[in-house]
Amino acid sequence: MTDNPYEASPERRAERLAETAPTECDVRVERLVTELIGRVADKWTMIILEVLEEHKELRFTELARKVEGISQKMLTQTLRHMERDGMVTRTIHPVIPPRVDYRLTPLGLSLGAAFCGVWIWAEKNLTEVEAARTAFDAR
Amino acid sequence: MTDNPYEASPERRAERLAETAPTECDVRVERLVTELIGRVADKWTMIILEVLEEHKELRFTELARKVEGISQKMLTQTLRHMERDGMVTRTIHPVIPPRVDYRLTPLGLSLGAAFCGVWIWAEKNLTEVEAARTAFDAR
DNA sequence: CAGAATCCTTGGAGATACTG
DNA sequence: CAGTATCTCCAAGGATTCTG
Question: What backbone phi and psi angles, to 5 degrees, belong to A99?
Fold first, then answer.
């Protein structure tokens, strides 16, 4: 993974790169995709996505209540990330007391749809997973 | 979230529970599902799933090489979790040097399929997310 | 080779207090 | 109300070493 300073020769190095890098650019894209997955396949992100899918629009405290178990800090943080990634819009109403509404963008909705399969899978296979666990633990 | 010791009366408490707990059992299931999602929507789990989907069967070091950036510790750990959850079988060949093969179970395969939508989403929307980020940062 | 064990660091995350 | 700022702490995870 780290550069090998003892590479035999430039030729050898080119050879090695040719082996490990099918089109060199694909690798870069693949890495970006992987990184994006890492960002997006996060527990809180998934749940917030889910909640915002159900209730079109929610304000901060409503989210805090609906999300169950999230700390205020993590909520803010996750929402910021989601906003930055274009998943969520954040509209501030200049009133007192302040009011901020969160709502999914089309991009966020599409991700929610993509995750839908995982939720369904989890519901459908919950008992099977639990069975596997107890079987594994009893050993 | 924590029990409120100042609940006015048993009646009031029952009322509150009726509000927050549509069928009480659903909540339990929902929590289990959420917890399962938290377990399964993990970066390394997703990637290992992906890799094992592509190459039917891999041994430990092969996985370590294919997974790119994972430490040996995390690989072992994640594989154990996946095995415990019934995603993966671990077959030990009693030879010297030792050889251990990992392969997805039907359950693992089904989860991989469920995640497939997310991978596709990530590939398709990578540029849009990056655009959103730069737009957000330039502010 | 396939791990287990150990040590060590960092940043993830909670709790609390403060502010526009 | 909707956050930001600060302090703190624990555990996730990396690096390294050891072993059947």
Answer: -140, 125
Q: Which of residues 83-122 of A touch strand D (CB under 7 A)?
A: 90, 97-100
The answer to whether residue B62 sits within a structural domain is yes
Provide the CATH number for the domain around residue B34: 1.10.10.10
Exposure string of A25-51, with b = 16+ CB inside 10 Å and e = fewer, is eeeeeeebbbebbebbbbbbbbbbbbb
Q: Which long-range contacts (CB under 8 A, 24 or more apart) does A39-44 make?
A: A39/A81, A39/A85, A40/A85, A40/A111, A40/B118, A40/B122, A41/B41, A41/B42, A41/B43, A41/B46, A41/B118, A42/A78, A42/B41, A43/B37, A43/B38, A43/B41, A44/A70, A44/A74, A44/A75, A44/A78
Reading chain B (139 residues) residue by residue, the pLDDT tens digits are 333 333 333 333 344 434 444 566 777 787 788 888 888 888 899 899 999 999 999 999 999 999 988 999 999 999 999 999 999 999 999 999 999 999 999 999 999 999 899 889 999 999 999 999 999 998 8
Return the pLDDT at B7. Answer: 36
Per the CB < 8 Å rule, is B41 touching A42? yes
Q: How many domains does chain B have?
A: 1
A91-121 tens-digit pLDDT: 999 998 899 999 999 999 999 999 899 889 9
Closest CB to B114: pick one of A111, A121, A136.
A121
